Amino acid sequence: MLFSAWVIPYGLALILFVAGYLKFLLQLPKKIMYLFCISGAVFVAGAIGLELFEGHHYERHGSIDLTFAVFYTVEEFLEMFGIVLFIYTLLAYIETEFGPLKITVDQDDV
Question: Are 41 and 58 in contact (CB under 8 A)?
């Protein structure tokens, strides 16, 4: 499962990162805190979780086949979905703190 050895130091760095930001997370509104945690978990599930399965599959079968392609496609999807969910959460937090945003473009400026 540890074909990609980078998951060990990055996993440790993730634990330190979460420990460092735990106080910040707990001070957020509950909905925002949950969405931050979910978006992070989705991203990490793709980045580290699926990477372990990819490495294991590659070690056992030694080639890139359809199963490996499915693994890395799901990995990339989870990473991108985690980022999109994080951006949504940031925008929801901004709206919670500052109210709705209104962006206008004046035709004279174009």
Answer: no
DSSP class of residue 57 equals H
Instruction: Tell me the mean pLDDT in the region 95-109.
Output: 83
Q: Which residues contact 12 (CB under 8 A, 6 or more apart)?
A: none
CA 62 from chain centre, in angstroms, equals 28
Q: Give me 105's structure tokens.
A: 């473009």
Could you tell me how many residues make up the chain?
A: 110
Question: Does residue 83 lie within any of the structural domains?
Answer: yes
For residue 110, give Cα distances in angstroms to 3, 60, 101.
53, 58, 21
Q: State yes or no: pLDDT of 109 exceeds 70.
A: no
Looking at per-residue pLDDT, the higher value among 30 and 11 belongs to 30
Number of structural domains found in the chain: 1
Residue 99, amino acid: G
CB atoms within 10 A of CB 16: 9
